[in-house]
Every structure is written in C-alpha cells, then in structure tokens.
Amino acid sequence: MSGARIVVIGTGYVGLTTGACLAALGHQVTCVDVDDVKVARLAAGRVDILEPGLEELVTRGLAARRLRFVVGSRAAVADAEAVYLCVPTPMGAGGAADLRAVEAVIAEIADVLPAGCAVVTKSTVPVGTAQRIRALLGRDDVPVVANPEFLREGTAVADFMHPDRIVVGSDDEAAARRIADLYRDLSAPNVITDAASAELVKYAANCFLAMKLSYVNAIAELCERLGADIVSVTEGMGHDRRIGRSFLKPGPGWGGSCLPKDTHALVQVAESVGFDFSLLTAAIVENIAQRDRIVAKIAGAVGGSLAAARIGVLGLAFKAGTNDLRDSPALSVTSMLAAHGAEVTAYDPAVREALPGMTVVDDPYQVAKDADAIVVLTEWAEFTKLDWGYVADLMQGDGVVDTRNLLEPRTITDAGLSYVGLGRPRPA
Ligand code: UGA
Fold first, then answer.
1. In which family does this protein belong, per the annotation (predicted)?
2. pLDDT digits (tens, 9 = 90+) for 66-103
3. What is the dihedral of CA 324, 326, 331, 333, to 10 degrees?
4. 247 lines ligand 1 (CB under 6 A)
5. Beta-bridge partner residues of 121
6. Domains in the chain, ordered, with CATH?
7. CA 330, CA 377: separation in Å to the nearest integer?
C-alpha cells in the first residue's frame, strides 16, 4: 500500500506525530479532530506542542498536499484504507483506562467505513480492546489492528522514523501485514502477531521501564545510606547488555502522560483476570515514596522545616525537552512543598503558565532571589550553564538539591553553595 489513504482521528501528540510522519512516508493523510480551532491552526501549519521537527513535517505535508486537517470523521473516512484511532485513553475510575473516546469514534464511523478499511488502534488500549471494537463495529468486512506507538515526548518524530521495532497485531493476519507494509520504508524489525499480544506489548514495555526506574530510585536511596555513588553503580550495571545503559537515571520519580497511566491500567487488567501484579504495584508505591524522600531532602537543605522556607524550583515539565506537565513529578513535589508552608518560585524554559501554589517566573535567576534553597526537578541542560556564582549572590541560603544529578557538584560548591544530589556522596 504505497501512498495509502489514511485517516488519523485525534490530533494530540500521538495522532499529530503519526499523521505527519505517515505523510512524510508518502501516504495521503487526513487528520481529524473535534476541536475546530485546533484544526484551523494545524491547517495553517501551527503546532502548539513542543516536539522537535514536528512543525516542519506538518508544513511539508501540507505543502505537498499529502496532509490535511479536518473536523468531522464521517466524511473523512469514506474512502479510507486505514483509520488510525489516536484519541485519549486517560486513567478512569479505579486506574483502568477510560475508553469512552475510542467508543464514541467507533459509534460515529461504524456504518460509513468502506469495506476492507482497517481500524488501527495507536492509543495505548487495554488488552481485549481490538475485540471490543470489532463487536462495537458489528462488521465482518472491517478488520481491527493493534499497532501500538513507542514514541517518547521530545523525540517523537525521531522515534517514529527510527523505531526499535514495529508491532502490529490482528486476528486477521493479512490486515496486520497490510498495516505493517505502510511502514516498509522504515528499517526496523517487525513483530506481526495477534491483537491481544500487540496490545500487551505496549503495557509490558512501559511498565517494565517504570519498574526499572523505581528500582534505580530505590538503589539510589540505598547508595545514600551505604555511602556508594549511584553514578558509578548504574554505570557498572549498564555495561551488562542484559540490563542496558538507558533508563537508569534516578530522579524525582517517573511521570508524564504514559507511565503512570499505563502502570495503573496494567495492575487493573491483571486484577480483572484474577492476577495480583504485586511487583508492579510495588513499583508504583516506590514512585510515590520517591517524591516523599525528595521533599524530605529539600527540608533537610533548609534546616529541617519547610514552613515559610523560600524554595526556588528549576524545572516543572515531567522531563526535559517538553512543556508537558501531565503527571509531572516536579508538580507533585512543588505542591507538597507548598503544602508544608514553603514559598515556591519556579522557572521552566518551556512553561510560562500560572500554576497554583507557586509563582512561575520567566527568568531562572528570579527563582534564586532570596531563596533558602534551589531545587532542580527537570533535567534541562540550560541549568548547567547558569552563572552559579551569581545565583549564590542572589540567594539567602546556600542549599542546592539536584534531583536529576544534572549539575557538576564542584561547580556548585566552588560557588560557595552546598550541593545535594541523589544517591551520591556529598562533595568534600
Ligand atoms: C514513554 C515511553 O518511553 C515511550 O516508549 C512510550 O511510547 C510513551 O511513554 C507512551 O506510552 O506514549 P514518555 O512518557 O515520553 O515515553 O517519557 P519517558 O522518556 O519514557 O520518561 C518517562 C519518565 O521517566 C519521565 O518522568 C522521566 O523523567 C523519567 N526518567 C526517564 C527518569 O527518571 N530516568 C531515566 O533514566 C529515564
């Protein structure tokens, strides 16, 4: 299917990246959204999410007439060969994924889909969703295919174009192969399987990553108690190819729009089939404990009590390279600080909006003014380039808590400040 006619429903971060990248692969892509203001902006080449390379791809797709943006899915799908569902699947009651948006789209398009058109799930959906969609569609001539995405925010375009693998699952093998063929210009191993396995791959991968991080954060805590250095420990671990070097950096906890939601959803899915996934539950609990430990560390840096302490926060996004605040550990930590009576001033290079419980400023040095302590919560490289001598002059206290082990400890101590990292011995 070279130059296939594809409809992408939902122009959030997954849908927009998928649509723009499929157009770049030579397909004719129509992106649909219910938000007419957003559609108009996108049709004019304006991308509101911070995603390197995405706006350029959208502009190129529009210019080449391989990409268009419309409101209303019924007309759009009329001659589609594949319809990608990229609508949100947020955390619903009890932690299970809320599939109402998926169901609403199916209800809307079921009777107008042309025969043979594949319905493809891109959003992370619970195992069994493909089957459920088939039932909702009530059509034998429309195959359902699970094709989970593995895009990271901040590197989504690169991840799409250079994937580690392409996973496509359907109970209709020919349909799965047709969808896999849409990506034939990408060089990556293809895993063609049944729908349930493809759906589970996504959860199994994200939850594994979350467990890896909870484990690393716990090892960092042990390092502190045992006088070891997490940087050397993870380096020593990472050289073992069975473990791998990536995803071994301790931090204020894992967040974002995916790992927290997916871990809860898999615990729920397991429970629904009578399996107590205590290993995964422990990773979630550890992730909450990590935030408590970070707050305690910050309290320690200001003499034990956060009441009326002035805390300057560097970084609010859930990780560097994005302006996404969804489930950001930085936001949990700042709101815990505020709840303990601290006065929080925060700066993030990608965040300008007003947020409750803190003053958001647009200059990193403003957070230092009269601060008792500075806390790095997101690993933006620009924080390493600050003039720390000037920061020290502006501050009232001398504490720097680096929850990302981003800064060079010596730079901080040379500026006359006191450095506290995560899982690292205090510099002499
Ligand atoms: C994650 C997965 O990495 C993607 O493969 C997946 O496609 C995506 O979810 C999704 O389901 O859509 P993302 O949420 O963009 O991607 O973020 P990650 O880069 O995985 O980071 C998740 C969290 O882990 C962040 O809070 C980050 O700061 C933290 N992290 C990551 C660490 O604390 N240490 C690390 O070494 C790596």
1. Belongs to the UDP-glucose/GDP-mannose dehydrogenase family.
2. 999 999 999 999 999 999 999 988 888 887 889 999 99
3. -120
4. yes
5. 85, 146
6. 5-191 (3.40.50.720), 194-428 (3.40.50.720)
7. 5
